[in-house]
Amino acid sequence: MVILSKLADYGVIIATHMAAFPDRQITAAALAEATQLPQATVAKLLKAMAHAGLVMATRGATGGYRLARGAKSISVAEVVAAIDGDIGLTQCSVHVDECARTTYCPTRPHWAAINRAVGQALAAVSLDAMITPAVFAPRTARTTSPEADEPRYSA
Amino acid sequence: MVILSKLADYGVIIATHMAAFPDRQITAAALAEATQLPQATVAKLLKAMAHAGLVMATRGATGGYRLARGAKSISVAEVVAAIDGDIGLTQCSVHVDECARTTYCPTRPHWAAINRAVGQALAAVSLDAMITPAVFAPRTARTTSPEADEPRYSA
DNA sequence: CTATAACGTACCAAATCGGTCCGAATTTGG
DNA sequence: CCAAATTCGGACCGATTTGGTACGTTATAG
User: Is the pTM of this model over 0.70?
Assistant: First the structure.
């Protein structure tokens, strides 16, 4: 399964590109050209990010977009949330009726804990960090499960 | 955005229910009844889990399903992976062509790091842990961001 | 006043997801 | 040995969501 939607992925790419060239205003069209993404989609994403206060927009001729804050103070989580909405693991509130009756569903707090961990994983990385070359987090890779590096999709 | 698909959520519910009554064989129909989920869907999920080796199936009359291993040695990540496929954040290999040319896309290792963190968050919780009442992980909640506890969906 | 560029909304197409069904294989019980 | 029960493994379809587009409006620069 893929966690981030394609749009969110695009959003991070766009934001990262802007972070790479700070204090330079760039139009949606130019950004689409630079990232090789469909122009209309880029405009849509920029709009969403502007709505979330991540980027500043200047209208009219010679207008364009710019990061609203420094690249260090914008996290990947914010970009994703601006596009896909807030991050949540499950919508387990759907079937609580009977499930709650039989076992009282004690899983809820655990879901919340996992949720928090995921959110922090995304919040821990800033746009600035995304454009720094390598870093290579040491010995976090688990040799027992080969799927960690290369994402695979539901067969 | 919701990370886990509804199916994966169901799968965890089913697996958790089986973990609550270990070494008792149960048919797909009975499981559907107990969890109040559509019967055909439960059968499908059980099938997927059996394929992944998480549950053992016994055919024929008086057949049914049973956890293949102890509830402590099965993680939520495994259940999710059995249903939704392996967990990956992005499919960023789609647009690498031009993106790689302009900035060499140094974001990849960072994605991998985030990916690993998410995977571990899911792998850290076993089915056994899911059925233990509360635990309440202490002071992990961030008071600054109110979205952490209650999952919200894309508006 | 005109050209440019963001804004907002509405809209369409397509892919994926959630869910159903049916036939085949297998085991228990009579 | 036969019949009922139950999983297995496909194919299959409908509907929600997602990805992407288009158009008209607003605002700024020259």
Answer: yes
Distance CA B134, CA A108 (A): 9
Alpha-carbon B75 to chain mean position: 8
Whether A113 sits inside 8 A of B103 (CB atoms) is no
Query: Cα separation of B124 and B147, whole Å?
Result: 22
Res B137 pLDDT > 90: no
pLDDT tops 90 at residue B77: yes
Q: Give the residues across from B88 on adjacent strands.
A: A2
Count chain A–chain B contacts defined by CB atoms under 8 A. Answer: 211
How far apart, in whole angstroms, are the C-alpha atoms of residue A123 and residue B118?
Answer: 12
Q: Does B62 touch chain A (CB under 8 A)?
A: no
Are A40 and A63 a contacting pair, CB within 8 Å? no
B106–A131: do the CB atoms touch at under 8 Å? yes
Judged by CB atoms within 8 Å, which residues 68-127 of A form the interface with B? 76, 80-81, 84-92, 94-95, 97-99, 102-103, 106-107, 109-110, 112-122, 124-125
Q: Which amino acid is at B137?
A: A
Which tokens is A123 given?
Answer: 């919040």
Cα B153 from Cα B155, distance rounded (Å): 6
CA dihedral for A77, B10, B125, A134, sign (positive or negative): negative
Q: What is the pLDDT of residues A2-56, one digit of tens each?
A: 888 989 999 999 999 999 998 789 999 999 999 889 999 999 999 999 999 999 9
Residue that is written with structure tokens 């009359």 in the block? B61
